[in-house]
Design goal:
141 residues, alpha+beta, two-stranded antiparallel ribbon
């Protein structure tokens, strides 16, 4: 009896990891089984027809028989991945990168503006300062 329990434990808990089988995360519920990392209904079970998806479908995907059916712009188990347009569209630049670039450009602009203001002020002071006369520069007539 003990060897039977050990054999069952090996098949259930050890073999999936050694055989390269994908585990479903989160675990399958409502009578579904895990096949290649996806929760699906057994073919002979008619109770799966109206099963909810494990997680809600994203990006306007519809849940059908416990599986998300995605629009043409999205893919993935829960429609979480945006599909690039055929012309290479689809922004892949994160918002944080765009914000960082804007901050750097604003900083560079402020440094340039401060440098120009300093230069203009310096030139104005040089032009408005009266020239100093030395005693040696006096014309002897």
């Amino acid at each position: 009896m003990a060897s039977y329990l050990i054999a069952i434990a090996v098949v259930v808990f050890v073999m999936p990891f050694h055989c390269g089988a994908q585990q479903c995360n989160p675990r399958c519920e409502d009578g579904r089984i895990c096949v290649n990392g996806m929760c699906t209904c057994p073919s002979n079970d008619t109770t799966c027809e109206d099963l909810p998806c494990n997680l809600p479908c994203q990006n306007d995907g519809l849940c059908k028989n416990g599986i998300c059916s995605c629009t043409s712009n999205y893919s993935g188990i829960y429609c979480e991945k945006r599909v690039a347009d055929s012309n290479g569209g689809g922004s892949s630049t994160p918002l944080s990168v765009i914000i960082a670039i804007i901050v750097v450009l604003v900083f560079v602009g402020l440094v340039v503006a401060a440098t120009i203001a300093w230069y203009v002020d310096r030139r104005r002071r040089q032009l408005t300062r009266a020239p100093e006369k030395d005693d040696d520069d006096v014309d002897d007539v």
